[in-house]
Amino acid sequence: MTASATPAITTRGLVKRYGSRTALHGIDLDIARGNVFGVIGPNGAGKTTTMRLLLDIIRPSGGELRVLGESPRSGGAALRQRIGYLPGELHLATRARGRDFLAHYAEISGPVRLGVVDSLAERLGLELGRPVRSLSKGNKQKLGLVQAFMHEPELLVLDEPTSGLDPLVQQEFLTMLREAKERGQTVFLSSHVLSEIQQAADEVAVLRAGRIVQVSTVAQLRESAVRRVRVVVPEPSAALVADTLERLPGITGVRRVADRPRAAAFEAQLDAHVDTFVKAVGRHELIDLTIEEPELEQAVLGLYNGAGGER
Question: How many CA atoms lie within 13 A of 76 on its CB side?
């Protein structure tokens, strides 16, 4: 298998224990090169632990992992130079100015093309001449992003990268992710901002209590969400339509709501049986039909709460 065909990240049965507490229960992942892969889950799900294992900041209690075709443990500094990392808790207290701070990291991470640091700082609205310790949380986060991106690494590992950033800078960050993907870089991203994952990621893993609940594309995850539907029919058809809705698979919470005169309106929740639903209600005379597009948040919350099967 060539280097380009080797997955950027592979884990098999990855386990991490802290004394008697197990933080990860046998994680299996395959992340293709050139993809943006999102990991989402509540606090304590295991997102940060997984990332620290990939960087050899901590070591696994069991299982196997490969990063860019190598073991993080044996890959050493040479492997880490191929990775850009932004930790979830960024503590920067140095008196050095931002530009000097980045110059120091450039000596560690490897060559940085001329002009890249200034370009990234300008895009993010970061002033490089100020002492790092005087920067706000948002500006420290920007500095961390520049540090991760500046040497154009093969793999970006970003733990809650938009924490503390204002909405305009968040949008610029998403543009940076798209550009990184176009260059062939791989991104492993964790976030609590579901809209961010929805816009950026090719694939998503949902973690809960140290286990993978589901891995799918964003589109597949959204398709698994419950939709809200609304059907408006002439009053004479109300009883028949109500009976149709009550009998349909995948329909729950059917209720009649107030609507225009001489019409009956029904609202309900619908799972993935969209085709069956449309064909069934289409046999009746319709005044209006609304099917809301499912949001990623609805699907994910269902998985957080145990509605999905564990993988």
Answer: 2
What residue spans define the domains of the chain?
A: 9-82+153-222, 226-293
Could you tell me where the DSSP H helices lie in 151-193? 167-182
pTM score, two decimals?
0.77
Nearest CA to 40 among 191, 200, 237, 213?
191
Which residues on adjacent β-strands are paired with residue 232? 265, 288
| Cα 213 to Cα 67: distance, rounded to the nearest angstrom | 22
How many of the other CB atoms lie within 10 Å of CB of 178? 13
Question: What Rg, from alpha-carbon coordinates, does the chain have?
Answer: 24
Q: In angstroms, rounded to a whole number, what is the distance separating the alpha carbons of residues 45 and 42?
A: 6
Give per-residue pLDDT as tens, 175-205: 999 999 999 999 999 987 777 787 889 998 8
Domain 9-82+153-222 CATH assignment equals 3.40.50.1000 = no
For residue range 214-256, list pLDDT tens digits in order. 888 877 776 666 788 999 999 999 999 999 999 998 888 899 9
What distance in Å separates the CA atoms of residue 36 and residue 306, rounded to the nearest whole number? 26
| CATH code for the domain defined by 226-293 | 3.30.70.260
